[in-house]
Write a structure and sequence with these properties.
- By secondary structure, this protein is of the alpha/beta class.
- The protein has seven domains: about 240 residues, Spore Coat Polysaccharide Biosynthesis Protein SpsA, Chain A (Alpha-Beta Complex), CATH 3.90.550; about 110 residues, no CATH class; about 55 residues, no CATH class; about 190 residues, no CATH class; about 55 residues, no CATH class; about 220 residues, Rossmann fold, CATH 3.40.50; about 230 residues, TIM Barrel.
- The strands form 13 sheets. Strands 32-31-30-33-34-37-36-38 form an eight-stranded mixed β-sheet, with helices on both faces. A seven-stranded mixed β-sheet has the order 3-2-1-4-9-6-10, sandwiched between helices. Strands 41, 44, 46, 47, 48 and 51 form a six-stranded parallel β-sheet that branches.
C-alpha cells in the first residue's frame, strides 16, 4: 500500500517544518508528499524545497495563490498513489498515524475511507481536548448535519475523490466537509479507529475562524445534505434525495449555535447570526449539543484552554442568555435557555480551576476530600444544584451533581460519593494497606499476585508499573471479601460456596495451618467451621457482617435476613432452609451473592469516608463504628417526614439516600399511602415539617417474601438459537456493508464468466437463482434465460438486487430461507453458489439437495459453484474455513441425490463449478461419466481471503463459535405504528408493513423478548443471557399500539413495555401541538386488557414536559404522581420511567430514583451494557425513515 500526502501551503514558514518533520518520522514509510505552495510571500517555498532536497519522497509545486481547494486538486492530479491524506501546513501527525490507518485498510480492504480521532493543540503546545466521534450508524446522515472529523485524520481512495471531481472550488471553507458528504452519499464504506494521532493547531487567523464565511458555507453544505446533489453521479438510492427536509431547520439552527460561540470568542454579537436562519423553526433542539458548542467554540479564536471559562463567564453570561432566549423564541423549543444553562454550568465547573466554594448561576460548587469529615453544606438560597469535585488525598476522583433543598445533608453526600466511587476508593485504600503486603511471582505465563498461599490473579504483565495499573480490577473484589469477612486466607470462590464438605475443610485447614499460625488467623479459621448457634424468631434475623456469623436454627422453610454493615441495614435477603438449619457459610454466601457491589458501597460509606486512610483495617473500622443508625442522628432531623425504603433489589436506586423538596411532601405522602410504603413523622408532630427525607435504611420485614425474589423466569426463545442463525448472519452482513464479498473483483468476475460458460445450450424458460445476494450475477444471467426468479434470505440484499436489476423486465425477486422454506414452483434451471456451506451439517445439506432436486423439471439442470476447502481434501489446495464441507462434499451430496447426475465440472485449485441434470424419475437413466475440466488458478484470490488459502493442503482449523449469548442488549424505542402518511411526524411513525418486516426478521434471527428485571439480574451478576435477547418499548401510549403494534407483536411472539403519560390517558398528545396533529391515546380499558395479555407498562411522566427544565418540586411531582396514577389504574407498582424527549441528567435520575423508580430509559443511542446505570439505559430509536437495512444495522451498533 502506498500513500500520497497532499500539503497545500501559504505563508506557513512558522509551521510547515513541523508538518514535514512529522511526516518524516512516520513508522509507515511508503509515502510520497506533494507540497503545493500557493505563491507564498514568506520563506514557505524555501523551507519546503530544503526538505525535498533531503528526502526524495517530497515534491514541491509552486502555483499562483488560487485558494486551498485548487491547491489540493493540483495535488490530487499529481499524486501517484492509490490512497490520499490531506495535511495542512500548520498541522502535524504523530509517528504512528499512517501505520494505524493503513493497518485498518489492510484488515478491511473493502473500505473506501478510514479516519481517526484528533487533538486540538493551543499555540503554546498545550492539549486543548481530544475528540473521536466514533462511526455513526448512518455516516451520510451525520455529514448532512456536521463534519465528523478533521481533514488530516482521514485516508481516502484517490479514485473515490477523483470520481467526484475533487474539492469544490466555489467553497472557501467547509470544503472538506462537503467532499466527505459527497463521498458518503455514494454509499462508500467508511472505517474508524479511535487513535488520536492527528494534531490540529489552533490559530486565531485560520479560515475556520472566519465566522460569516463559515456560516454561509456551512449552511450551504447542510442544505445540500437535505436535497439532491447533481455533483454526485451515482448516489446510493437511500441518499439520492438527501436527508428529510423536515430535519433541515434543526440542523441549521444547531450549526448557528457553533458559529454563535465563535462570534462570542471574537467579541461579536451572536444575535446577528440568527438573521441567516430567520425563517427556520424546529422545536426539538438538543440542549446538550448546544451547550457543548457554546462551551468549546468561544475558546477557539483566542486559543484558550477549557479552564478559561473561570474568567470568561462574567463577561459572556449575559450575551449567551440573550442569544439563547432569542433562539428559544424563534425555534419554539420549550425552556431551551434554562436547559442549556444547566448543562453549560456543569461543563464549566467540570473544568474549572477556581477556588471553591463558588456559585455559578444556579449551581453551587464545592470540593470534597473523602478522607476528611463530610458535614452538612450550607448553601445560598438562590441555587438549585450542588456540584461536587471529589478527591482522595488530593487526587481527583470525579464530579457529582445533586439537587439542593434548604441546605445539603452530608449524610446524603456520603452515600452519593460511595455509590459512584466506591471501587476507586477501595483501590486507593488497599494500595496503602493490603496491596503492599502481597507477593508478586514471575513465571513463563506472566506475573501472578499472591496473598499467602492464595493466588489472587495470574497472567498479569511482568513489568511492575503495568501490573499494578490493572491489578485492582483483577484482585480487588477477592481482597475486599477477604477483608470484609475477616478471612484473608481464602480464595474468592469460597465466599460464594453454599457449603463445604469435610474433605474440603480438612484440605483447607491442612494447607493453611502453617501460614495461619504465623498470620494469627487460626482463631478466625476455626470459627468459620465451629460457629455459635442462634435461633431465628419467626424465620427472621438481623446480622452484622463485620462480626462472626452464627449458624441459624430456623423453624420456617425460608429465612429472611437483614444484614447490616457498620450497623446500617443493607436490605433483606431470602435464604432457603434445609433441615431447619442455615450454616454460617451458607449465610455468608447468600449475603455476598445477593448484595453484590452494594456490599462495597456501604462498607466504603460506613468504614472509609470521612476518615484518614491509614490506621485500622476495613473490618475493624466497621466493627468499631460507634453509633447505630437512627433518623435523628444520621439525617439531623428534629422535625420532618421520613419515607421508608421502596421495594426493589439490593444495589438499585432504592438503596440511595435522598433529600427531597419540602413542598413535595403531600404528593409523596399520598404516593406512599397508595403504594403501601411506610412514612415516619419525626418526632410525630403535626406542624409543617422542616425536612423531607428518603431513608433506605428504614426497612421492615415484610409479611410475605414474594416481593423479595431477585429471580425472574426468562421467556423462552421461540426457537433454539444456534451459533449461526442464517437470517441474522446475512441481514447483519449486508446491513453493515454493501457487497461484503466484493463480487466485482477479478477473482469473482472470472468465476461468474466460467459459471455462465457451463450453462446448457438450450432454451431455459423458468430459472431460479438461489442466494442471489445483491444481484451482481443476476444482471449477467438474466439476458441468457427466460423468466428469472432471484431469491435470497436477506431482504436487505434483495432490495439492492432490485435496484441493480431495475431495467430487467424478466427478473422477479423472492425472499427465501433454503433451510426452512419451500421452493416456490418447478424450474428448468436452479443456480446456487457460495452459500451451501452455511446450511448447517451434513443432514441439513442432504435436505437442501433433496429440496432442490424435487424443484427441477424432468431434464432440468442444477448449476453450483463453491470453494475447495481443506476439510474435504486435506492433501489438496483449499481454503482453511471452518465449515463441515466444501465444494467436493457439496458435489458428492448432490451426486448421491436422485435423480441428479453430475454431467460437467470445471475444477481449479481454489473452487469448482458443477453442472447436474435431473433425470426422469419414471424412466431409467444410464449413468454417464461427467466431463471434468481442470484448469490452473486463473486469477489470484482477493487479499481479504488470500491468507486463508493453504496451497499445499493442511489440517483444517476449527473455530470455537460458542453458544450465542446476549451481553449487549438492544432496547428498541418506538412511538407509533400507523399507516403511512408523509407529515411532520413521519420520523415517529413506523408503518404496519415495516413493523411486520422488522418483527419477522427478529423472529427469524432467533431474538426473543425479555423484561427489564431479567436484564437487571444479568447486569448485577455479569451473566450473559442465553440466545439473542431484545427488549421492545413504546413511548406515549398511542391507540395505534392497540390497533396495529400489539396484534403484530403477538403474531411474531414478542412482548413490549409501553410508557404512559399519566395525566393524558384516554386523551391526546397535547405536548406535540406544534405539529398540529392530534392523536388519540390508550384509555384505561385498553390498558387493562393489554396488561392482561402480557403488555408491561411504565411511566412517561404526568405531563410529558422536559424534566431538566422543571424545579425539583415539579420533577418529584412528575415521578410521584405518575407512580400513584399508574398504581391505582394497573393495580401494580410501576418501577420503570422513560424520560420524555430523553431529557434527563444526574439530578433527574437521583430524584426519580428516590420516588421509587428502579429503571430509567433514555434516548441515548446504543446497546445496553452490563456497566450501564439502571436509571440511564440507552435505547435504539426506530424511525419511520428506517428500512430493513437500517433496522438491522442499528441492532449491531
Amino acid at each position: 500500500m502506498k500513500v500520497s500526502v497532499i500539503i497545500p501551503a501559504y505563508n506557513a514558514k512558522e509551521t510547515i517544518a513541523e508538518s514535514l518533520q512529522s511526516l518524516g518520522a512516520q513508522t509507515f514509510t511508503n509515502w510520497e508528499a506533494i507540497v503545493i505552495d500557493n505563491d507564498s510571500s514568506d520563506d514557505t517555498l524555501q523551507i519546503a524545497t530544503e526538505f525535498a532536497e533531503k528526502d526524495s519522497r517530497i515534491r514541491v509545486i509552486s502555483q499562483p495563490q488560487t485558494g486551498v481547494c485548487i491547491a489540493r486538486n493540483t495535488g490530487i492530479a499529481e499524486a501517484k498513489n492509490d490512497w490520499l491524506l490531506f495535511l495542512d501546513a500548520d498541522d502535524w501527525i504523530l509517528p504512528q498515524h499512517l501505520e494505524c490507518l493503513t493497518d485498518a485498510l489492510t484488515c478491511n480492504p473493502s473500505l473506501d475511507l478510514v479516519y481517526s480521532g484528533w487533538a486540538r493543540i493551543t499555540v503554546d503546545g498545550a492539549l486543548f481536548y481530544e475528540e473521536f466521534r466514533g462511526q455513526p450508524t448512518k455516516i451520510f446522515n451525520a455529514f448532512a448535519r456536521n463534519c465528523v472529523f478533521v481533514i488530516h485524520t482521514c485516508l481516502v481512495r484517490r479514485s473515490t475523490v477523483v470520481n467526484l471531481g475533487g474539492f469544490d472550488t466555489s467553497l472557501r471553507t467547509c470544503e472538506d466537509w462537503d467532499l466527505w458528504q459527497r463521498i458518503a452519499r455514494t454509499g462508500a464504506r467508511f472505517g474508524a479507529i479511535s487513535h488520536t494521532f492527528a494534531r490540529y493547531r489552533m490559530r486565531s487567523h485560520s479560515a475556520s475562524m472566519d465566522v460569516m464565511q463559515l456560516l454561509c458555507d456551512g449552511l450551504r453544505v447542510i442544505t445540500t445534505g437535505h436535497s439532491l446533489d447533481p455533483r454526485v453521479p451515482n448516489p446510493a438510492p437511500a441518499y439520492a434525495n438527501g436527508m428529510p427536509v423536515a430535519e433541515l431547520a434543526g440542523a441549521k439552527l444547531d450549526y448557528v449555535c457553533w458559529n454563535a460561540g465563535l462570534t462570542l470568542g471574537h467579541g461579536g454579537n451572536p444575535l446577528t447570526l440568527l438573521r441567516a436562519v430567520s425563517q427556520e423553526c424546529f422545536p426539538g433542539l438538543n440542549p446538550e449539543l448546544l451547550a457543548e458548542y457554546i462551551f468549546k467554540a468561544p475558546l477557539l479564536p483566542s486559543c484558550r484552554p477549557l479552564s478559561a471559562w473561570d474568567d470568561l463567564w462574567p463577561d459572556l453570561q449575559g450575551q449567551i442568555q440573550e442569544f439563547l432566549t432569542a433562539l428559544e423564541a424563534q425555534s419554539m423549543t420549550p425552556t431551551l435557555t434554562r436547559r442549556v444553562f444547566q448543562r453549560l454550568e456543569n461543563l464549566i465547573l467540570d473544568h474549572s480551576t477556581a477556588p471553591r466554594p463558588l456559585t455559578l448561576g444556579s449551581t453551587y460548587a464545592v470540593r470534597v476530600e473523602v478522607t476528611e469529615p463530610i458535614p452538612d453544606i450550607v448553601v445560598p438560597s438562590t441555587v438549585e444544584r450542588l456540584h461536587c469535585a471529589i478527591e482522595i488525598e488530593g487526587k481527583p476522583l470525579g464530579n457529582i451533581t445533586l439537587p439542593i433543598f434548604d441546605g445539603f445533608s452530608g449524610y446524603v453526600l456520603q452515600d452519593a460519593i460511595a455509590a459512584k466511587f466506591a471501587w476507586e476508593i477501595l483501590g486507593h485504600f488497599f494500595k496503602q494497606t493490603v496491596y503492599r503486603t502481597l507477593t508478586v511471582k514471575q513465571s513463563l505465563a506472566g506475573a501472578s499476585v499472591w496473598r499467602g498461599s492464595v493466588c489472587l490473579a495470574d497472567g498479569l504483565p511482568e513489568e511492575r508499573q503495568a501490573l499494578w495499573a490493572i491489578a485492582h480490577d483483577r484482585i480487588g473484589w477477592t481482597v475486599f471479601l477477604q477483608e470484609l469477612w475477616g478471612l484473608p486466607s481464602y480464595p474468592g470462590g469460597f465466599f460464594y460456596s453454599l457449603k463445604l464438605g469435610k474433605k474440603a475443610i480438612l484440605k483447607i485447614l491442612k494447607e493453611r495451618f502453617q501460614n495461619l499460625l504465623f498470620e494469627g488467623g487460626w482463631k478466625s479459621t476455626v470459627k468459620t467451621f465451629i460457629s455459635s448457634q442462634q435461633y431465628a424468631v419467626q424465620g427472621r434475623l438481623t446480622v452484622e457482617v463485620s462480626e462472626d456469623l452464627p449458624n441459624i436454627l430456623v423453624s420456617t422453610p425460608e429465612l429472611l435476613v437483614m444484614p447490616t454493615v457498620g450497623k446500617v441495614p443493607l436490605g433483606i435477603i431470602s435464604v432457603e432452609v434445609n433441615g431447619n438449619r442455615v450454616s454460617a457459610q451458607k449465610l455468608r454466601a447468600a449475603i455476598t451473592k445477593e448484595s453484590g457491589l452494594e456490599l462495597a458501597v456501604v462498607a466504603v460509606r460506613e468504614g472509609l469516608l470521612g476518615r484518614p486512610i491509614t490506621g485500622q483495617t476495613l473490618r475493624d473500622r466497621l466493627v468499631n463504628k460507634p453509633t447505630v443508625f437512627s433518623i435523628e442522628n444520621s439525617y439531623g432531623i428534629d422535625r420532618g417526614v421520613v419515607l421508608a425504603r421502596h421495594p426493589g433489589a439490593i444495589g438499585t436506586s432504592v438503596c440511595r439516600r435522598a433529600m427531597l423538596p419540602i413542598n413535595a411532601t403531600n404528593d409523596l405522602i399520598k404516593a406512599a399511602l397508595v403504594t403501601g410504603e411506610s412514612v415516619v413523622k419525626v418526632p410525630g408532630v403535626e406542624q409543617q415539617p422542616e425536612r423531607l427525607v428518603y431513608a433506605p435504611e428504614l426497612i421492615w420485614f415484610p409479611d410475605t417474601t414474594a416481593n423479595l425474589s431477585n429471580q425472574i423466569a426468562l421467556k423462552s426463545p421461540l426457537q433454539q438459537s444456534s451459533a449461526l442463525n442464517l437470517r441474522e448472519h446475512f441481514e447483519t452482513l449486508f446491513a453493515q456493508q454493501a457487497d461484503p464479498w466484493k463480487y466485482t473483483v477479478p477473482y469473482e468476475q472470472k468465476k461468474y464468466e466460467q459459471t455462465l460458460e457451463l450453462l446448457p445450450p438450450i432454451k431455459l424458460d423458468q430459472v431460479l437463482e438461489l442466494a442471489c445476494a445483491e444481484g451482481h450475477f443476476t444482471v449477467q444471467l438474466a439476458p441468457r434465460v427466460g423468466s428469472l426468479l432471484a431469491a435470497d434470505i436477506s431482504q436487505v440484499a434483495l432490495e439492492r438486487a432490485g435496484q441493480r436489476c431495475t431495467e430487467l423486465k424478466n427478473v422477479h425477486f423472492h425472499q427465501l430461507d433454503l433451510t426452512k422454506d419451500l421452493i416456490p414452483g418447478r424450474f428448468d434451471l436452479i443456480i446456487c453458489s457460495e452459500v451451501l456451506y452455511y446450511v448447517g451439517g451434513w443432514e441439513e445439506l442432504r435436505a437442501c439437495a433433496r429440496k432442490i432436486a424435487d424443484a427441477l423439471n424432468p431434464g432440468g439442470y442444477f448449476l453450483t459453484a463453491h470453494a475447495n476447502l481443506v476439510v474435504d481434501q486435506p492433501d489438496q489446495p483449499g481454503y482453511n474455513w471452518d465449515h463441515p464441507f466444501g465444494a467436493k462434499g457439496i458435489g458428492d451430496t448432490f451426486a448421491n441425490t436422485q435423480p441428479l447426475q453430475l454431467i460437467k465440472e470445471l475444477w481449479t485449485p481454489l473452487y469448482r463449478i458443477q453442472l447436474f441434470q435431473a433425470g426422469d424419475r419414471n424412466k431409467y437413466t444410464p449413468t454417464k461419466e461427467p466431463e471434468i475440466i481442470k484448469l490452473p488458478q486463473p486469477t489470484p484470490p482477493p487479499p481479504f481471503v488470500a491468507a486463508d488459502v493453504l496451497w499445499n493442503g493442511g489440517s483444517p482449523h476449527h473455530y470455537d463459535n460458542g453458544q450465542t449469548v446476549t451481553t449487549h442488549l438492544p432496547i428498541l424505542m418506538y412511538h407509533r405504528v400507523h399507516l403511512n402518511e408523509i407529515c411532520a411526524t413521519t420520523r415517529y411513525r413506523v408503518t404496519p408493513e415495516a413493523f411486520a418486516e422488522q418483527l419477522r426478521y427478529l423472529r427469524d434471527a432467533g431474538f426473543y423478548s425479555i423484561t427489564l428485571e431479567a436484564w437487571r439480574i444479568a447486569m448485577a451478576t455479569k451473566t450473559p443471557l442465553p440466545g439473542r435477547a431484545i427488549l421492545i418499548t413504546f413511548d406515549d401510549g398511542y391507540q395505534d399500539f392497540r390497533d396495529y403494534a400489539w396484534p403484530l407483536l403477538k403474531r411474531y411472539g414478542f412482548s413490549a413495555t409501553v410508557f404512559l403519560v399519566a395525566d393524558e390517558i384516554g386523551g391526546s398528545n397535547r405536548w406535540d401541538s406544534f405539529y398540529g396533529e392530534e392523536i388519540a391515546l390508550l384509555d384505561w380499558s385498553d390498558i387493562r386488557k393489554l396488561q392482561d395479555e402480557g403488555v408491561e407498562f411504565g411511566s412517561h411522566s404526568v405531563t410529558h414536559r422536559h424534566l431538566t427544565a422543571l424545579s425539583p418540586r415539579e420533577m418529584v411531582s412528575e415521578g410521584a404522581r405518575s407512580r400513584v396514577i399508574l398504581q391505582q389504574g394497573l393495580d401494580r407498582l410501576p418501577n420503570a420511567f422513560a424520560y420524555p424527549y430523553g431529557d434527563q441528567d444526574d439530578v433527574v435520575q437521583h430524584l426519580l430514583g428516590a420516588c421509587g423508580y428502579v429503571f430509567g430509559l433514555s434516548c441515548k443511542p446504543g446497546l445496553s451494557r452490563f456497566h450501564d446505570s439502571l436509571l440511564a439505559l440507552p435505547r435504539i430509536e426506530i424511525t419511520g425513515y428506517d428500512g430493513l437495512q437500517e433496522f438491522v444495522a442499528k441492532l449491531n451498533v
